[in-house]
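Quick one: structure for this chain?
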Amino acid sequence: MSENCIFEARNIKKYFGVTHANENVHIKLNGGHIRGLIGENGSGKSTLISIISGIQSSDSGQMYLSGKAYNPQSPLCARDNKIGTVVQELGLVDGLPVGMNLFMGKTDKFKKHGLLDTKALFNEADQLFSHWGFSDIHSRTLTENLSVEEKKIVELVRALSIDPDLLILDEITQALSLNYRKKLIDIIISLKKQGKAILLVTHDIEEMVAITDGITIMRDGEIVAERESEKTTPDEIKKLMVGRAIEGGYYRTDDVASYADEVVFEGVNLTSNKFKNISFELHKGEILGFTGLSDSGIHELAEAIFGVRSVSKGCVRLPQKNNTVIKSPQQAMKLSMGYVPKDRDKQALMVHDSILNNIGLAGVEMTKKKLGFLSPKERVEISKKAIESFSIKTNGPNQQLAGLSGGNRQKVNLSRWIIQNKEILILDCPTRGVDIGVKSYIYQTMLAAKRDGVSMVLITDELPEVIGMCDTLKIVKDGEIVKTIERGPELSEESIIEVMV
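Got it. Here's what it folds into:
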């Protein structure tokens, strides 16, 4: 490694009760170097990043910036030391305009005679978005109106706005579609050429091996190995992450579509301000995929299918149930549909509530007794069943979701529909932000549900995911379906990108 050491951590320890989140962690980050950090959910990556970023303090150990002792007391302190961080979970205030979030804690520079010059603030914010190639995001937009992807871009530009010597990216790539992801990689490479240090966390192992210079692997709170990216393989990294060889693949092994003739669900000329004239049929036992770039409208389509988003024209209906038209999520749930949205913490789960209440809320019909009363005993039983069936790592049904890893939260999110034997599942980026073990588990759960005749709409930005899992794929561009590909030789990244971009 070069002598240009920008950051070094030595013997970092962090405990949460008896849990060793970080144990004697030593990592060095050099200028002009892209360092990958990888490990299963709960391996200690996010804890280490939170310590470097001043979100929390270590119990012991030392950190150094350019050879000088570094002990941040807050995220603002880290930013003052030119450390820019994009954390895994969204860190924006929805009730504020984008520009205000961009300069959160740094608004003094825009004050004149004690008053905030909002015009100057918004103008500089717009200039920053334009500079980094994201001029489609506007500083005066209310943050709550942005998509998950756009919010991640705001956090990225906020981190870049301080001209960081060290840029830390924790699980940002899986929130981005293909076009934004390419922009991000270009930015990372540009910063590397400027002599900056980059620490990249992603569960996309192939991507990490391709764009990093070196990879640090964590397991059970400790660093267990370091590898030069050009001298390792994804299979070796997987083995080092879990401590054993990963047998078999994630995806389906068959190469032809397989589903029944029966149409269980259909969209007819669905039109809104994000998509237009979307029509499709979903068959019993089919996995129907939708993919597209950031502005394609696929995530808004997922909301419309489940009745969360209204449409200006068209409808979604169930032919086998008297052509009933879906008009609300409550109606969809009663008609045996379940929905896993892209932003699980904001749109699906109550992260500051228990597993029991999160599962019970979705499973009200399972526990409802005469006169509308809910059975406390049955609520506990179905929660325990979900925990056991999905191997959710938890202290029990009463544990808050905030104390679970991202992968275990997603297991809760998916399990509450599967245990109800729903006939139709709408899955929007179901493996976003989860490690290889949980990702494989989710795929196997999907395939088991398919074998049981469950029909699924899979909406995702991940091309390997749609290729590996779908019977039928619909490619959406500028809000319209531009091509449909059945499972087979034509279902490849090349054929998808050719029409998607």
